[in-house]
Amino acid sequence: MSYFRKHLDLIAGYQPGEQPQDGQYIKLNTNENPYPPSPLVVETLMENLRRHRLSYYPSPLCDELREQASTVYGYPSSWILVGNGSDELLSIVFRAFLGNGDRVLYPYPTYTLYRVLALLQEAIYEEIPFEKDYSIPEKILTDQAQLKVICNPNSPTGTFIPTPIIENLLKNSCCPVVVDEAYVDFAYDNALSLLKRYPQLIILRTLSKSFSLAGIRVGFLIAQPEMIQGLLKMKDSYNVNWFSQKAATAALQDLPYMKNNVEKIKQTRQEFSQAMTKLGYEVLPSEANFVMVRKPGEGLKSEYLYLKKNWILVRYFPEWPDSLRISIGTDSNMQFLIHVLKNINKDHKDDL
Ligand SMILES: Cc1ncc(COP(=O)(O)O)c(C=O)c1O
Question: Model confidence over 133-153: pLDDT tens digits?
């Protein structure tokens, strides 16, 4: 006998990537940043800890942080909603727009959390395969639904849909359209400029990737104020804790630090992609801080296990067994990974 609503018994929850906490692995499986956050973050936390009385609730709307985000993203704070990671913001959006039998469309493969959030709402998810060149499927442009989601740059492929195509999608869609830009600081463009013209557009950002702050759980949703007002009804009163608000505000005050790390990662991405191509892998062109490498038709599970045995964690998705998604670490992380992969054929893969 189950106490749960019927549909919950039928679904598996989202399976996050492995998160060993002992620091022994080179972690290239969940697209974290290999560099630490800005020193200003730690300084600010230490300074404020002494002054603040933790017995008080934090600001419900993250006033100070919203102000700082407003200067960074170029929209007033009434256009910004802060979340406990962009995962929370995705959950708010799916709960706001989808009920039993409603439809959500998104290109596939993509972030698998979208499917789980749809299932939790008893909504119908339509996963429309990307075109062969990873451009947007025609059906996403033309079909109507209650919600459309575009992950851009896309995970796990790293590929990018140009902004004029996103605009085309908005012109053709009456429903809310989420553009999940978790990785966009590593790309050559973004969709922020479209916000003024399209009231149905919702852009998601996170501090977990380019700002090296996955541990504090802060994300932003940027949209027109009417959209923000509606979505606010779905939010817990104090969804972002006081530490995270302070840390995030400090990180956004030090943009040059973030941009410098992004440049280093892009350089490493290019060198790593070339090295993997030389090793015989197909490497998808990436605008993110990870690359998807493939051996079409071959299974790469043994490569994943071999790397793990050598203390390197990458992401293997059973849904796409001929591919691995590898986050970009430091130069020496990536050189070590290449070195290990070169040795794989010398060892007995089948013994793994
Ligand atoms: C595409 C995409 N969107 C959102 C998130 C969630 O990020 P956050 O850490 O802000 O919850 C991730 C995390 O990996 C992601 O890959």
Answer: 999 999 999 999 999 999 999
Structural domain for 111, as ranges: 39-254
CA terminus-to-terminus distance, the chain: 40
CA–centroid distance, 300 to ligand 1, in Å, is 24
Atom of ligand 1 nearest to the CA of 31: 14
pLDDT tops 60 at residue 348:
no
Cβ pair 159, 129 in contact under 8 A: no
**Residue 20, pLDDT score:** 85
pLDDT at 347 over 80: no
Any atom of ligand 1 within 6 Å of the Cβ of 86? yes
- The rounded distance, in Å, linking the Cα atoms of 211 and 37 is 6
Beta strands in 218-311 (DSSP E): 219-222, 282-283, 290-294
17-37 per-position pLDDT tens digit: 888 888 799 999 999 999 999
Total domain count, the chain: 2
Which stretch of 54-58, 80-84, 116-120, 179-183 has the lowest confidence by average pLDDT? 54-58
* Domain at 294, CATH number: 3.90.1150.10
How much is the average pLDDT of 263-283? 97
Please report the DSSP string for 201-224 in residue order. EEEEEESSSTTS-GGG--EEEE--
Read off the CATH number of the domain in which 218 is found.
3.40.640.10
Residue 1 lies in a domain: no
Has residue 16 been placed in a domain? Answer: yes
Q: Around 31, how many Cα atoms within 13 Å sit in the side-chain half-sphere? A: 28
Same domain, 64 and 161: yes
Considering the domain architecture, whether residues 114 and 146 belong to the same structural domain is answered as yes
Does the beta carbon of 96 sit less than 6 angstroms from any atom of ligand 1? no
Which of 254, 287, 305 terminates a domain? The answer is 254
**Residues 138 and 187 occupy one common structural domain:** yes
Predicted local confidence at residue 282, as pLDDT: 97
For residue 70, how far is its CA from the centre of ligand 1 (angstroms)? 21
156 lines ligand 1 (CB under 6 A): no
